[in-house]
Amino acid sequence: MTQTVLEQILSRVQRRLEALGITEHAAEVKAQAKVGTIRNWRRGAMPRIETLKVVAPALATTPEWLAYGVGPEDTEAQTPTRPAIAVPRISWVSAGAFAINDSVLPTDEFDTVYAADLPDGEWYAFDIPEGYDSMDRISPPGSVIIVNRKSKRLIPNACYVITDTDGAATYKRYRQSPARFEPVSTNPAHEPLFPDKGNLPGIFGRVYRSYINM
């Protein structure tokens, strides 16, 4: 039996989910798409090309491949991988202090993790400890996040390690209208941080990668 256009799109979406080893929900969160977007497609809603453009990068592919099966399937495979580098693993306490005064970190004092394919930057790693659930929809406890300290320009929907009102480090997503740093959490007790009278918190750097070892 010939597949319909929707069935073909869903087949390609499923193929990318399996290739990346992620769930529909994880792909939607990564794409900053509405929760249930892919589920609605499975219920019969035809995807719009604008929505495919939003979802495609989270699936490491192109909207053209999702819609029509043309062009490269795996965009990550098209980019040469940079060699792994040693990234200092620092604590939340250190992050809070250095976000405030922006001084040079003594990187030789910290353990390291290795990460490949990072662009130019000043990189640091953080462990997400047990019980830290303010960003668990993106980085559950046990995850490692890789942060670029050279990237402090605020971009809507990007995630940052910042200092809260008490000077302690925290990890949040930046949103606008109004400007705020909000949790992406399954715990409704967490609330957004709103800059006081336009004064931004100390920004350690932008979160570039989050992963968890199985």
UniProtKB/TrEMBL annotation:
SUPFAM superfamilies: lambda repressor-like DNA-binding domains, LexA/Signal peptidase
One Pfam family this sequence matches: Peptidase_S24
The Peptidase S24/S26A/S26B/S26C domain, residue ranges: 90-197
CDD domains named among the record's database cross-references: S24_LexA-like
Gene3D superfamilies attached to this UniProt entry: lambda repressor-like DNA-binding domains, Umud Fragment, subunit A
Protein name as catalogued: SOS-response transcriptional repressor LexA
Protein species of origin: Rhizobium halophytocola
Lineage: Bacteria, Pseudomonadati, Pseudomonadota, Alphaproteobacteria, Hyphomicrobiales
